[in-house]
Design goal:
- Pathway: Cofactor biosynthesis; biotin biosynthesis; 7,8-diaminononanoate from 8-amino-7-oxononanoate (SAM route): step 1/1.
- It is an enzyme of class 2 (transferase).
- It is found in: Cytoplasm.
- By secondary structure, the protein is α/β, with parallel strands linked by helices.
- It has two domains: about 150 residues, Aspartate Aminotransferase, domain 1, CATH 3.90.1150; about 260 residues, Aspartate Aminotransferase, domain 2, CATH 3.40.640.
- Helices cover about 35% and strands about 15% of the residues.
- It has 15 helices and 16 strands.
- The strands form four sheets. Strands 4-12-11-10-7-5-6 form a seven-stranded mixed β-sheet, with helices on both faces. Strands 1-2-3-15 form a four-stranded mixed β-sheet. Strands 13-14-16 form a three-stranded antiparallel β-sheet, with helices on one face.
- The protein is globular and about 65 Å long.
């Protein structure tokens, strides 16, 4: 009989993401995974609705990725990238440049999504140091402009461009660099841009462009900031504004890249290209951590002409051969072009099966785009309580804030997806709408946070 995990040790000593060590959320022990299912240590199987934080798009145990990693492990698992190169890194960068838009010609390999954003910001700042500008003007170009309700990671530069009001980094105060923010896009995806949607962005660029090095934004979908889908015309207008005011455009496609929104990259919903592009998560199919920051010749030249003469970043595990081999195998699967039909089928099925969730009193909105399905609730949810309900229903769905959402692997079956969508609606129906005290709960308990949970569950790594 399989030995159960030492949950007491885990609770006492192991710090899980976004949790308290004095009020730890319950955890579920996973023994193995295959396809779209996680097998718990007690033998129960759960359909994974999160793709392990949006990364495991090909499912678990895919033979092509496992074989590539096993072969690479025996040949060369790691070597420093300083002064050394190797075939997996070269092949990966060739694939990335072939898949992305033509102006992107340079690839910097990173450890994780948050680091990809750090690298992008450093690129933007150092780029201006290499421009033929008066010293005072170059010194001014130190700010990053972005929109509210965004999320770009948990390291310090990444934190500085996350939502400054409703985000989770406000407690770090003055330790986080103060960046420039405007209201988030309001025009929903698929609609013509509202006339005044870009006005805040235009105003701040007109007034402060001399201080701004770059704009960073998650294209089409704001992920962990609220799973919001906005008009592709906003991106087109933003690109034009960056060109007009001589500001770089950074697109953070760590969550949206490699097919998640129905296009290979979310910027393909319109006709723009970025100066700098951040990729991660599904890059390796979710099998090992790796990310990449791509830039144009112009950006690379500016950095190389800066006083340092080189780009000042060099992670120990940069270009890790094992991760690069996994990424090459994952991108080969993407290039087989099965994902467009898979994502389209997921989108259509979620649209059908989640449409009536809007009739549930606790549900404020229903949103579907590509392989992303969202129920926005009227109030924050109790993550621990809902997590247990989902496990009891045989699915792994991880709510956060006021959202119940799924981002399943592309290889999910129709039956498995139906089990996920039905579980979402079933659990949503158990949530008491606002201003109604739940049964057997006193008003005092309700006021102390019966329906809230400070332990939110998001990731950019």
């Amino acid at each position: 009989m399989r030995n159960l995990l030492d949950f007491d040790f885990d609770s006492a000593h192991i710090w899980h993401p976004y949790t308290s060590m004095t009020r730890a959320l319950p955890v579920f022990g996973v023994h193995s995974a295959q396809g779209c299912e996680l097998e718990l240590v007690d033998g129960r199987k759960l359909i994974d609705g999160t793709s392990s934080w949006w990364a495991c798009v090909h499912g678990y145990g895919h033979p092509a990725i496992l074989t590539a990693m096993e072969q690479q492990l025996h040949q060369l698992s790691h070597v420093m990238f300083g002064g050394i190169t190797h075939e997996p890194a070269i092949e990966l960068c060739k694939k990335l440049l072939a898949m992305t838009c033509e102006p992107l010609t340079k690839v910097f390999l990173c450890d994780s999504g948050s680091i990809a954003v750090e690298v992008a910001i450093k690129m933007a700042l150092q780029y201006w140091q290499g421009q033929d500008l008066p010293l005072a003007q170059k010194a001014q170009k130190q700010r990053i402009l972005t929109v509210k309700k965004g999320y770009h990671g948990d390291t310090f530069a990444a934190m500085s461009v996350c939502d400054p009001e409703g985000g989770m980094h406000t407690m770090f105060g003055e330790a986080v660099i103060k960046q420039c923010f405007v209201d988030a896009p309001q025009t929903p995806f698929g609609e013509s841009l509202h006339q005044d949607d870009l006005a805040p962005m235009q105003r701040i660029l007109r007034e402060q462009h001399q201080d701004i090095a770059a704009v960073i934004i998650e294209p089409i979908m704001q992920g962990a900031g609220g799973m919001r889908f906005y008009s592709s015309e906003y991106l087109r207008g933003l690109r034009a504004l960056c060109d007009e005011y001589n500001v770089l455009l950074i697109l953070d496609e760590i969550a949206t890249g490699f097919g998640r929104t129905g296009k290979l990259f979310a910027y393909e919903h319109t006709d723009i290209t970025p100066d700098i592009l951040c990729l991660g998560k599904a890059l390796t199919g979710g099998y090992i951590s790796l990310a990449a920051t791509l830039c144009t010749d112009n950006v690379a030249q500016g950095i190389s002409q800066s006083p340092a003469g080189v780009f000042m970043h060099g992670p120990t595990f940069m270009g890790n051969p094992l991760a690069c081999a996994a990424a090459c195998a994952s991108l080969d699967l993407i290039n087989q072009q099965e994902w467009p039909a898979q994502v389209a089928a997921i989108e259509q099925q979620m649209q059908r099966e989640l449409a009536d969730a809007i009739d549930i009193p606790s549900v404020k909105a229903v949103r579907v785009l590509g392989a992303v399905g969202v129920l926005e609730m009227h109030q924050a949810v109790n993550t621990a309580a809902l997590q247990q309900q989902f496990v009891d229903l045989g699915v792994w769905v991880r709510p956060f804030a006021n959202l119940i959402y799924i981002m399943p692997p592309y290889v999910i079956s129709s039956a498995q997806l139906s089990q996920l969508t039905q579980a979402m609606k079933q659990v949503a129906a158990t949530i008491t709408p606002p201003n109604i005290t739940p049964p057997n709960t006193t008003p005092e308990l309700a006021s102390q946070g019966w329906h809230t949970d400070q332990n939110i569950s998001i990731s950019h790594g």
